[in-house]
Amino acid sequence: SPLSRLLLRSTEHAPLVPLAGAVALGMLMLRTAQIHVQIRGNLKVFGALDLAHFLMRMGGVGLLIALGQVSTGAVLVSFLFAPLLAFACWASTAGREVVQNVRVDRPMMRLLFANLGWYLLTFGLSGAISRMDVFVLSQWTDLREVGIYSAGATLAIIPQILGSYLSVLFSPKITPLLN
Predict the structure, then answer these.
(1) Contact predicate 33/85, CB 8 Å
(2) Which of 94, 73, 69, 88 is nearest to 30 (CA)?
(3) Per-residue model confidence as pLDDT tens digits over 91-140
(4) Can you tell me the distance from the alpha carbon of 149 to that of 170, in angstroms, rounded to the nearest whole number?
(5) 112 touches 104 (CB < 8 A)
(6) How far is CA 149 from CA 8, 20, 25, 121, in A?
(7) Among residues of the chain, what percentage have pLDDT more than 90?
(8) Which residues of 87-119 are buried (b: 16+ CB within 10 A; e: fewer)?
(9) Looking at beta carbons, which pairs linking 67-74 to residues 24 or more positions away fall under 8 Å?
């Protein structure tokens, strides 16, 4: 397919592209559940959902390693089922009332979709620009080198993230001392 040729530079792994899309949709479902519990202030359920997702995802990969069946497709399937199972657990327990009371408000949906295009365009451009280095690098090197660069770039972000978290934690305590 043209999309797999663009993203993977081959059609050999074309079935992985829709599978990766399904994983993204599964993650959107999980994040939707987490947003509901976060808005309600139920951080224990939020944490439980996140922990369940992590354990199922890593448990699936661990099982694949133990069985000696590790492949890109198998890992993606594991990454697909983890958020779907976590969402299903939430929807059948703490989220039951949310799922049962879903109704479609047509005027509100029209308003949502009228504005959605701009948000999708913004997020799409933002995502493409933020990873432009990987796109450009993939044009001049092989995927192995791009993978090494991407892993290094991800690890390089960790101190920045830790700084952001520490700032949120310590700013309320330090700010009164400045006055």
Answers:
(1) no
(2) 88
(3) 888 777 777 777 778 888 888 888 888 888 888 888 888 888 888 888 88
(4) 33
(5) no
(6) 16, 21, 27, 27
(7) 25
(8) bebbeeebbeeeeeeeeeeeeeeeeeeeeeeee
(9) 72/13, 72/16, 73/15, 73/16, 73/19
CB 15 within 8 A of CB 7: no
Specify the DSSP class assigned to residue 37.
H
pLDDT of residue 27: 93
* pTM score: 0.62
Give the containing element (helix H, strand E) for 70.
none
What is the mean pLDDT of the segment spanning 69-78? 90
Taking the C-alpha atoms of residue 38 and residue 46, their distance in angstroms, rounded to an integer, is 6
Q: Residues 1-30: what's their mean pLDDT?
A: 80
Nearest Cα to Cα of residue 38 among 96, 83, 80, 94: 94
Neighbours of 86 (CB within 10 A): 25
pLDDT for 118 equals 82
Percent of the chain scored above 70 by pLDDT? 94
| Alpha helix ranges (H) inside the chain | 2-8, 16-39, 43-67, 72-92, 96-100, 106-130, 132-140, 143-178
**Beta carbons of 14 and 70 less than 8 angstroms apart:** no
